[in-house]
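Incident review: delayed structure delivery

Summary: a single-chain prediction request sat in the queue longer than the usual turnaround. Root cause was a stuck worker, restarted by the on-call engineer. No data loss occurred. The affected request and its eventual output are reproduced below so the record is complete for anyone auditing the incident later.

Affected input:
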Amino acid sequence: MTVPTLPGLLVLAAFGCLGLGLASFAVAGVLCLRHVLRGGRAITRVRALHRQATHGTTCIHCAAFGPAYDNTWPCPTIRALDGEVAV
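Output delivered after worker restart:
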């Protein structure tokens, strides 16, 4: 068996580092994707709570807090999810 020379060892080390780097990059990508999907499901749940009443122009969830709360449709929560900036 031959002993690799220093340049050969450096190449092997570089490939090892590259392999570890790609593996950690892939793991980071999977974790990021899980976070995005989890956030999407959370937004879906919020939208399911804040929906327009069938009998008028109010948000069902916000109307439960009483007339003093802004419950017009779309409610402040839905407007924020849609990207509207509050003034």
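Verification: Residues 52-87 form one domain.
Action items: add queue-age alerting; document worker restart procedure.
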